[in-house]
Amino acid sequence: MTVSDISHLIISHYHPDHMGIAQDLVDLGIRLVVLDKQKDYLHQSDAIFEKEKNQTFKPIVDELTLVISIRNSRDFLAGLGIDGEILWTPGHTKDSISLVLDSGHAFVGDLYPLDQVPLFKDATIIKS
Ligand SMILES: [Fe+2]
C-alpha cells in the first residue's frame, strides 16, 4: 500500500498530534472529510504550530475539504465500501469523532482510561 492508495482521510479530532500532516496528505491527493461537528475546529491548532515556529506545518485549506453531516455518515461510508458509521464522541474535545464498523471494530482518537472517567465528573465524557 502506498499513499496513492488512500482516497479519504478523517481525523478523530483536531489536536496538533492528530492533524499536523493533514494538508500535506490533501496535497498528495487525499480527500479530507470533515464532519459537520468538526468544521469549527479545523484551525484550532494553527496557533500552536505558529507559536512553535514550525516551518513545515501547512494549515488546512477549507475549500479543499469535503464536509459531511454526521447523520449521513453511514451512507457516505457505504459509498466507499465501508459498513459502519461515524459517531460524535465529545469529551476529550468537542470535535471528537469515532469510526465504528459493523464488524464491531472502532477507531477512536484520544480516550481517557476507563478507570479515570469517573474522576472527571463530566456527563459528556461518561456518555462518550
Ligand atoms: Fe487529543
Describe the secondary-structure layout.
Blueprint: E1 8-9, H1 16-19, H2 22-27, E2 31-35, H3 46-51, E3 66-68, H4 73-79, E4 84-88, E5 97-101, E6 106-108, H5 117-120, H6 123-127
Parallel strand pairs: 1-2, 2-3
Antiparallel strand pairs: 4-5, 5-6
Bound molecules: fe (ii) ion.
Describe the structure.
This protein has 128 residues and is of the alpha/beta class. It has a single domain, classed as Ribonuclease Z/Hydroxyacylglutathione hydrolase-like (Metallo-beta-lactamase, Chain A, 4-Layer Sandwich). The chain is 25% helix and 18% strand. The strands form 2 sheets. Strands 1-2-3 form a 3-stranded parallel beta sheet. Bound molecules: fe (ii) ion (FE2). Fe (ii) ion binds next to loops. Fe (ii) ion (FE2) binds at residues 13, 15, 92, 110.
Descriptors:
alpha/beta, three-stranded parallel sheet, 6 strands, three-stranded antiparallel sheet, RibonucZ/Hydroxyglut_hydro, 18% strand, Glyoxylase-like metal-dependent hydrolase (Beta-lactamase superfamily II), Metallo-beta-lactamase, Chain A, Metallo-B-lactamas
